[in-house]
Write a structure and sequence with these properties.
35% helix; 11 helices; Rossmann fold; alpha/beta; 5-stranded parallel sheet; 13% strand
C-alpha cells in the first residue's frame, strides 16, 4: 500500500491506461513475438509494492499461460531500472519515449497495478482478511503466519525465481556472515511521511519492549529515521548491526542507493526472528523472501493497532486490474 508521496493520480492513470497499447517489440535483447501474450506488472510505487505486484503478476501469468512483462518507471520512489536490481529476463517496458504503439488489446495485455498479493476467487473463506481487508475480504497482506500453507508455497515458488544481480548477491552474502542463530532482524517505521500512522502506531517504547525480549542478542536494524536509529544505538550499542553504505541511507534517487535498499531487504530476510512494524511492506516482503520461515513479532501494542484499525477504510484495489475480471479468468484457467 503506498504511504509516501508518489506519482500523481493523473499521471498514474495516464500511464496505466496506455500500457495496453504502448509496448515495444524488444526489451534488453529479448524479442516479443506477435503471438506473445503478457501479464504486465505495473506498480509505480516503492520497491516492496512493486515486488508484490510482480509476484501477483507471475502467479496470474502462470494460470493464464502468459509471459510476464514489467512496467517499472524511474521516479522519486524507485529511481532505477528493474534490471539494475535483478537479472531475471522479464520483458521490462522502457520509458514512454521508447515505446511503440501497437494498439489497445486487453486480450493480449493484462495489467496488474496493485500493491496486494492477489488470491483467486474461492481460495479463502469469506471475510478472511483481518489486517487490511478490501470490499472483497480475501486478502493475505500482513497476515503472516495466518496465510494458508498452499498460498505460501505458491508465492515462495515465485520468490525463489527472483535473482538479484551479482554485485548485490556478493554484498549480501559477505555481510550475512556476521549473523548467527540468535541474530534478530528489526524493521522500524516511525512514519515521518505519514502523520496519522506516526500518531497512532509509532512508540519508541514499544520498539524497546520488543527488542528487550531478546536478551544478549544482536540486532540487524532497518529504520526510516536516523533519529530512531540513534535512540537504538544509545540503548543497545554494539549489539546493533548495520550494513555499511556507499550512499545516503534510504537513498531512492540513485541506482546505487536503490541497490543498497534491496541489500538491506535481503539481509532482513536472513534471520529466524523478525521484529516488524505493522502495516509496513518492507518487513512483510522480507518475510516472504526468507521463505516465510521467520518468527514475526509486531512492534505495536494491541491498543495502538486497535486505534489505527478504526481509521481504515475498505479499498477497492481490484479496480486496478485489467481486464476487470482478470482473477476470474485466471481461476477458470
Amino acid at each position: 500500500m503506498p504511504t509516501s508521496a508518489g506519482p500523481s493520480v493523473g499521471l498514474r492513470s495516464y500511464a496505466v491506461s496506455h500500457i495496453l497499447g504502448l509496448l515495444p517489440d524488444r526489451w534488453f535483447g529479448v524479442h516479443a513475438k506477435a503471438s506473445d501474450r503478457f501479464v504486465v506488472s505495473a506498480s509505480e510505487y516503492g520497491l516492496c509494492n512493486r515486488l508484490k505486484s510482480l509476484l501477483s503478476a507471475m502467479r496470474v501469468a502462470e494460470r493464464l499461460s502468459r509471459s510476464v512483462a514489467i512496467y517499472w518507471p524511474e521516479n522519486n520512489l524507485v529511481n532505477c531500472r528493474f534490471s539494475d536490481l535483478f537479472d531475471n529476463a522479464f520483458f521490462e517496458i522502457p520509458s514512454a519515449q521508447g515505446r511503440r504503439k501497437i494498439g489497445s488489446n486487453e486480450e493480449k495485455y493484462c495489467v496488474v497495478d496493485t500493491w496486494r498479493l492477489l488470491t483467486f476467487p474461492g481460495e479463502l473463506p469469506a471475510n478472511y482478511a483481518r489486517e487490511y481487508p478490501s470490499f472483497r475480504g480475501g486478502e493475505i497482506d500482513w497476515e503472516y503466519g495466518r496465510i494458508p500453507a498452499a498460498i505460501r508455497k505458491a508465492y515462495t515458488g515465485y520468490i525463489s525465481q527472483l535473482s538479484p544481480v551479482a554485485a548485490i548477491r556478493t554484498r549480501v552474502d559477505a555481510f550475512a556472515r556476521a549473523f548467527n542463530d540468535r541474530t534478530v532482524s528489526v524493521s522500524v517505521r516511525s512514519w515521518p511521511d505519514h502523520k496519522l500512522r506516526a500518531e497512532t502506531l509509532y512508540r519508541i517504547e514499544n520498539v524497546f519492549a520488543a527488542m528487550d525480549r531478546h536478551e544478549g542478542a544482536e540486532f540487524f536494524v532497518i529504520a526510516d529515521s536516523e533519529a530512531v536509529m540513534e535512540q537504538l544505538l544509545a540503548r543497545y550499542g554494539r549489539r546493533i548491526l548495520r550494513c555499511p553504505k556507499q550512499t545516503t541511507d534510504g537513498d531512492r534517487n540513485t541506482r546505487a542507493g536503490m541497490q543498497e535498499i534491496l541489500i538491506d531487504l535481503l539481509l532482513l530476510s536472513k534471520n529466524r526472528h523478525l521484529i516488524a512494524s505493522a502495516y509496513s511492506t518492507f518487513p512483510e516482503v522480507a518475510w516472504w523472501l526468507g521463505g516465510c520461515m521467520a518468527d514475526v513479532k509486531i512492534i505495536e501494542s494491541e491498543e495502538c493497532l486497535a486505534v489505527f484499525r478504526k481509521t481504515l477504510t475498505l479499498d477497492d484495489e481490484y479496480t486496478r486490474l485489467t481486464p476487470p475480471d482478470l482473477l476470474q479468468r485466471a481461476t477458470a484457467g
